[in-house]
Amino acid sequence: MSERATVPRPRRSHSGDEAIAIDDDATLHAMGYPRKLTRRFRGFDNFAISFTIINIISGIFSAFGFGMGAGGPLILVFGWIGVSVMVLFVGAAMGEIASAYPTSGALYFSAGKLARRHRGAWSWYTGWLNFVGQIGGTAATGYAAATFIQAFIVMQWPGYTVTGQSTVTIITVILLLQALANTYTVQLVATLNRISVWWLLIGMTVIVLSLVLIPTHHQSPSFATHFVNGTGFSNAIYAAMLGLLVTSWTFTGFDGSFHMSEETVKATVNTPKGIMRAIGYSAAAGLILMLALVYAIRDYSATASASAPPVQILIDALGTGTAKLLLLIVIGAMLFCGLANMTSNTRQIFAFARDGAMPGSRLWHSVSPRTRTPVKAVWLAAACSFVLITPAWWSHTAFTAIVSVNVVGLYLAYGVPILLRLRLGDEFQPGPWHLGRWSRPIALTAVVWIAFSSVLFMLPHASPITPTTFNYAPIALGAVLLIATAWWFATARRRFQGPVSYGSPDEVAAMDLV
Asked: Of the ranges 122-126, 461-465, 471-475, which is most confident?
């Protein structure tokens, strides 16, 4: 097998899923891997996992308060539209690469295959950025769910006191339940992801209709152009740029479709379609939800200063009873999001370990003979996420830095293979789903946006800058890269040369376990 894998186009077949599965296996064998995971994800299932991880309800409700001070309604609404378009460019560029390399290794695998030189290093850094970002995503969604669960408890029992200890305890229970669900079977996770799509769509519809039909007062149409700068910085343009992070925070994790490609039927087509549909549908539905929340705001200053501004909007507009019912929809969405996050995270660990890039690799890429799932990788993902949330026991600031590293780590991991695809030029061999003559302009736009948004995430987000408001993301990200670099030069560069091939297509076909 050559260093740069050429993936065969799937054969056309009208004889059902069995014939399609043979094509998927041939594609995987051409990349040098035997089939070890069960292919039970249909096109809808592949879309569902990224749609659930993006999770407009979770993302908007978690970040809305920040946006109220960083640009206000103008940036919340029009920033959502602009950033959604840019994320579609990123998704399209990623989808084209996913069609060419449909494997659980996803970003780090394609980085290793697309690099002309230093393939091992490109793959190594991409993999670890992706790993840290995925772990941070699982931890962050657990933290958000715990926060809103406690907001509900306070509404139901006002005497309840929220503490760091109670938050960590609730997150721990959430991680355990999500790990158990991922341990059981792929079919269970696929079923829960299907349910999550309808939970999100129906839940969003209920929330929007409630905010539109029940309140007797709404803001005027011009309110969408209202600008607010509550960041403490005098420069309005800078404040507006910070407000773009609300949408960027929401649109993470759509690489989940890529990571699930080894478990997806007709992956060379369904994987990129899953990425694009998840982003497109989230963009449209999210705009509707954003508008509903913005126009339902009563007292802007009081809402912005509340501990959970979206919850305050629901209470002011609908009353406490209805607000509590809608809050259950939000909490459910966050729990589904965390489950899908962990599933994607587990597949990245499985693939990275399969190529020998993690300590104890043989352990983490083993597959349960009963469930055909990487059970040990599931519990490693849960354990690492638990480690990340432990600072919340005594400090919220430290955890905020981890959340920022989650987003920056993921987007940098997205950007590396797209950049390498640009450098490769016409040597890039696309899969069945490709962008044609628009491939390079779209990839270039994606790389520029990733670079811009990553810088924004590492700049100060509030003034004056104090130990409480300081953005620790550059320090945390620098620490991750420092550790990865030290590890690379100490031992990894001698034993890790990027994605490995287990043999010729015929040889790896004989190793299939499913």
From this structure: 122-126
